[in-house]
Amino acid sequence: CLNLRCTYHASGGGGVAIDNKIEQAMDLVKSHLMYAVREEVEVLKEQIKELVERNSLLERENALLKSLSNNDQLSQLPAQQANPGSTSQQQAVIAQPPQPTQPPQQPNVSSA
To answer: Could you tell me which residues belong to the region Disordered (predicted)?
Structure first.
């Protein structure tokens, strides 16, 4: 055998206790990983919910804008209609105003 369990089993009675400790440690790692995965799933579910709501809002806004525009205005739109994925990405970029950038602050250095 090439793994630790076979080595410990061959060494005698202490191998069973070590096997139990290894098993407990593996169970502990497994439970911690499962907890972390569940937490991440909850965060992702919340993000999905927010994105679905945002998508719905944008679709309603789009429908309203289409209803308020005339056919001439719609015909002047760029050919983005052929690729709906790029349209929704551009809408998301347009919908979020850029954040103002602040210049990096210089640390206050006093000469002593």
So the answer is: 69-112
What does the chain come to in residues? 112
Burial class (CB in 10 A: 0-12, 13-18, 19+), 9: middle
The C-alpha angle with vertex 68 and arms to 67 and 74, in degrees rounded to 5, equals 75
Residues 75-85: tens digit of each pLDDT:
887 765 555 55
Q: List all residues 6 or more positions away from 19 whose beta carbon is below 8 Å from its beta carbon.
A: 5, 8, 9
pTM: 0.48
- Judged by DSSP in three states, 44 sits in helix
Cβ atoms of 74 and 66 within 8 Å: the answer is: yes
**Structure-token pair, residue 59:** 């679709």
DSSP state of 107: P
